[in-house]
Every structure is written in C-alpha cells, then in structure tokens.
Sequence to fold (131 residues):
Amino acid sequence: MGSYLVKLLIIGFGGFIGSVFRYLFGGYVQKLSNSVAFPYGTLAVNLLGCFVFGFLIQLAESRGIFTSETRAFIFIGILGGFTTFSTFSNESVNLLRSGESIAALLSLGAHIAFGLGAIWLGRVLAYVIWR
Fold:
C-alpha cells in the first residue's frame, strides 16, 4: 500500500503542475489571440501537450530512460493535468501503429461523438434541475 500511495502522490503533484501550466499557457495564448470566438488557448494547449507527449514517449519507448515513477509523474501527472487530449491522441496513434485501424477509427469516433453527447446531456440535466 505504501508504494501505491507514493505513486498516487507523485501523480497528484504532477497533475497540479500540469493544471497550473494549462491555465497559465492557455490563458496567455487566448489573450494574445484577442479572440472570443475561437478557443485558441485550448487548441495551443492540446497541440503542445501532444507534441511533448510524442517526443517524450518516443524517448521512453526507444531509450527506456524513465523509471515507472517518472513515467507516472510526467505522462499521467503533468501531461494528464495539462491535457488528456495528448493521451487520447497517443492511444489512437498506438492503435494505428499496431495495425488496428478499425479500432482506432472506432475509438476516435466514440470519443468525439460520445464526448459531445455527454457534454450535451450534462448541460440538459443541469438545466432541467436548476432552471
């Protein structure tokens, strides 16, 4: 239990760092864009997160340079707090790399369709409860 708790704390601390970076970086980019019509900050966060995730996961897979704890801290904690879109994108690429094209397309479609549907349902439910 002790090592499991330590891993959770490592992930939690990384998540704190990633979330703060997401807020600062996304807000900075959105302010630079002078746009209220398009979420440039979110797009920039997702693209940067995907790039960093891809760069570091390649090093992790090809060079084995990260310990299990470091991988948890960086990939689940920091990058997970920064953007879960990077994890989603990496999993989709991994499916494509392993020849699972149908599974990749199903995953992409399901995440987008059901994600949008879940947002809509949550909004409708909140509206019905607190109108």
Observations:
- The helical segments are 2-33, 40-63, 68-82, 85-97, 101-130.
- The mean pLDDT is 93.
- The longest helix spans residues 2-33.
